[in-house]
Amino acid sequence: MDEYGAVRKILHWLVAILVVGQIGLGAELAYAPPADNALTGQLYGVHQGLGATILVLMLLRLVLRLILGVPVPPRGVPRFAEWLAGLNHRLLYLLLIAQPIIGYLRNGAAGHDWSIFGYYTIPSIIAKNAVLADALKEAHEAVGAALIVLILLHLLGAFYHGVIRRDGVVQRMA
Q1: Of 11, 14, 53, 116, which residue has the fewest beta carbons closer than 10 angstroms?
Q2: Which of 39-48, 51-60, 92-101 comes out lowest in average pLDDT?
Q3: pTM value?
Q4: CB 142: neighbour CB atoms within 10 A?
Q5: Structure-model confidence comparison of residues 167 and 7, the more confident one
Q6: What is 6-172's CATH number?
Q7: Considering just the CA atoms, what is the radius of gyration of the chain in Å?
Q8: 173 within 8 A of 155, measured Cβ to Cβ
């Protein structure tokens, strides 16, 4: 296998677009008025729905990755680059799956269910707890910051392979 199939490419780019949107929306929500404001409440609803969508898409991507594997790197890719890429991908998968779960748990600890675009509600599995809600909010923000770093490293790797080495790695997902 030299490249990812069409389905995995679409999933990759769809998740990328949604994550960029979530980062912007999350940054906006960090400075928004309290959630009782109508616009802020709507933004939280979109943020929760997109988080649920990313979780489902990432679980699908994980299943496909486990079943189909990944393309073999082109000849000549340095071992360290291959190792760093693998580590970055594993951490991206882990955090992109963990982040919506942390958000869901934070909602529950804050006394809210998880609304999926207002069409479906996932009830909380934990009791309201302000201290836990604050801790989960901090964890959600920390994971968000870590995701930004990992995404930047991912883009740096794409630049390295696409512009400096021109070894065909980037074309496998293009």
Answers
A1: 14
A2: 39-48
A3: 0.91
A4: 11
A5: 7
A6: 1.20.950.20
A7: 18
A8: no
The one-letter code for the residue type at 62 is L
Looking at residue 29, what is its pLDDT?
Answer: 87
d(C-alpha 64, C-alpha 26), whole Å: 28
Q: Is residue 62 over pLDDT 70?
A: yes
61: its two tokens: 């991507």
Is the pLDDT at 134 greater than 60? The verdict is yes
What would the mean pLDDT of 110-130 be, rounded to a whole number?
92
How many C-beta atoms lie closer than 10 Å to residue 154's C-beta? Answer: 16
Burial class of residue 19 in the structure, from the number of CB atoms within 10 Å of its CB (0-12 exposed, 13-18 middle, 19+ buried): buried
Q: Annotate the chain with three-state secondary structure.
A: CCCCCHHHHHHHHHHHHHHHHHHHHHHHHHCCCCCCCHHHHHHHHHHHHHHHHHHHHHHHHHHHHHHHCCCCCCCCCCHHHHHHHHHHHHHHHHHHHHHHHHHHHHHHHCCCCEEECCCEEECCCCCCCHHHHHHHHHHHHHHHHHHHHHHHHHHHHHHHHHHHHCCCCHHHCC
Show Cβ contacts of residue 132 under 8 Å, excluding neighbours closer than 6 positions: 109, 126
